[in-house]
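== Folding the chain ==

***
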Amino acid sequence: MSRIFDTHAHYDDSRFDFDRDELLSVSLPARGVEGVVTCGVDIASSEKSIALAEKYPYIYAACGIDPQEAQRVKKGDFAILTEMLKNKRCVAIGEIGLEYHYKDVPRETQLSVFEKQLKMAKYLNLPVIIHDREAHADTLMLLKKYQPRGVLHCFSGSVEMMREIINLGMYIGLGGVVTFKNAKKPLQVAAEVPLNRLVLETDAPYMSPEPFRGKRCDSSMIPYAAKKIAEVRSVRAESLLSMTADNARELFSIQ
């Protein structure tokens, strides 16, 4: 497989510490990976994402403050983030959004940090990479208010919500979850989403597809999700990879 573009990974994660350079410089390009967006979740990981993007030509950075890190935001962090977002290797604000499954960060704190970053996206004219877990109503409310460009990563909503997202001009990100045995809703979305609004992702090192559940995920595993989506769409997996790579380049304004 070739023309693999992974729109969401975390290659700063410690699980890549022992082989990161070999993986990124040799292994992934040899397996057909032509592009990766590695995402920050706080200031430190965003800085690491930029460093990776500056080292490997096919890797791009997204910088942002994840909802689970919202309570740790310090004075001056948004000013630092704004400067990072101006780096030419940074193509999006992300990963940002809302996480209502876990209860450790108050919703009002998450909403405040999310809204500030949506305002930054409009000001800097950058797309957003959205985390939305069990927070569909509030996510939709803010996306309708600010109408950013961007993608809902690891999309977990219904077909009806997907259509609302598409009507806002945004993209849907799908990955390894479509291969899971209980993946009813993601497969329904995969079958219905307009192909020009679909991008593929891994969330590496998380969310490994079947048959790699429980193992470390990397961008070379995207073809497993592509094959499953191609099956429900009655298209060739190679064609799907090519279309979604083109979509990713358009989304992130990458030549």
